[in-house]
Amino acid sequence: MDQQISSELDPDVPLKTVVESHGSHREPAWEQTALANDPRWQLAQRIASGSSFARSALLSKFLLYVCNRALVGRTDEISEHQIGVHVFGRRPEYNPSEDNIVRNYARQLRQRLDHYFDEEGQREELRLSIPRGKYVPCFAPNKLSTPQRPSESDELVEVSAASLVETVPAIASSSLHLRPVSRLAVWGALLFVAAAAALIWMLFPDKTSAKADPSYPLWTLLFDRNHQTLLVPADDGIVMIQNLTKHSVNLDEYINRDYLSIKSPYKIDTQNMEDLDQQRYTSMADLDAVLKFSRLPEATPERFTVRYARELHMEDLKDSNVILIGSSFSNPWVELFQKNLNFDFSYQPRPNESAILNRRPLQGELPVYTNDATAPSHRTYAVVALAPNLNDTGWVLIIEGLTMAGTQAATDILFNREAMRPVLDKARTPNGSLKPFELLIETRSFGSNSPQASIIADRIYTNPGS
Questions:
Q1: Which residues belong to CATH 3.30.379.10 in the chain?
Q2: For domain 210-235+282-460, which CATH number applies: 3.40.30.10, 3.30.200.20, 3.30.379.10, 3.55.30.10?
Q3: 325 CB contacts (<8 Å, ≥6 apart)?
Q4: In tens digits, what is the pLDDT along the chain, a chain of 466 residues?
């Protein structure tokens, strides 16, 4: 498994830090002592330790890295590629055009900087900014008058639409010189993206007039003001790779990309296998879920990001709120939480041969729930689970179905207040928060659609894994 950046930068103590990532790669040391008396570096430290950055270690590292490099005259190291390597632990050979994590975080960094100078940093003598399209920081006198900013509607289109269009896993975008085995998929994906873009633009008129509903505690919990919320759709590319290779990919293999060395019995050549790995495929059911979550008034643009599964890091699951769509077969990060769940997905890299295992069946429940894809009922199942994140500082919501119809059914149940009210009432704590829970959902399916769904079993936990 890749070694993630885990060391924290203490903005109050000058230090010499060596950050290691991915085993053998070692980054240059940061010599911060010489900057101790520089007011620009002191400003960067105050910002990184302020309330606007307190919950995001990666944004603080991003800010301190670019400021440090700029102030010591090493602006050649302030590029998207260098930031990806030194801040986000990417391998030196990674391609920023295929991995937009730096751009996503840069957008958030600019928003947090604006928030800092609008609130606690109003009386700072200097103002720090990161110009759009660049990563080199700028320092200028800070005017006490409020800077002119875009109108609310302009800002909504600029931040929300751009964020979703750029960060919703793109199912298309690739060269047309692919071999026949992948060309059809690419053309289909291009049509899909056109439809997806239209759906995304339909999102925004409702957002400006919607109001948050404090009576629905799940959204309040997942989109609280103190955490970044990441929505991670399924990686359908890894599903196709598993089906082609007949090999189930675990999380360790997924992070290290070890599955690329597995031979396919269908004699898929290396070029097409790598192309399949590089593309960002997801399903229409997942895109529908992205749109539904994005419409929630609680999902404010400055704290809500859509992240592709291959761009996620272990660090993200420690202190952020995260929504994982897909089981461990299509979103391997779910593996980290599956051991504490009662309803366990058992996947085979063959269509319609997967099942949900009920580890501790209660009266009237089955020990195994399987697809009934060939029968007239077309019955399938899904699970919704709410669990603490890795550091127990936030929450992870898992939405996983045996099929796309199952995933759609699970999403529909989550947004069905009548169906969710009894569960949330049982899970609600005296202080208004929620206990961890699991829901088993049954639905009929027609293709990838789910016409009806119901909760057939639930588990409410006092402590995770209990």
A1: 210-235+282-460
A2: 3.30.379.10
A3: 231, 232, 233, 234, 286, 289, 331, 399, 400, 407
A4: 333 333 333 333 332 333 333 333 333 344 555 688 888 999 999 999 888 787 788 899 999 999 998 888 888 889 999 999 999 989 888 888 888 889 889 988 998 898 899 888 888 889 999 988 789 998 888 875 444 444 433 333 333 333 443 344 443 333 323 344 444 444 454 445 445 544 444 444 444 444 555 557 899 999 988 889 999 999 988 888 888 888 888 898 888 888 777 777 777 777 777 777 777 888 888 888 999 999 999 998 888 989 889 888 898 899 899 999 998 889 999 999 988 899 998 876 665 678 899 999 999 999 999 887 666 667 889 999 999 999 999 999 999 998 888 888 999 999 998 999 999 999 998 888 899 999 999 987 665 555 678 999 999 998 544 4
The residue among 51, 23, 191, 27 whose CA lies nearest residue 115 is 51
| Alpha-helix residue ranges (DSSP H) falling in 202-263 | 204-209, 217-222, 236-245, 251-256
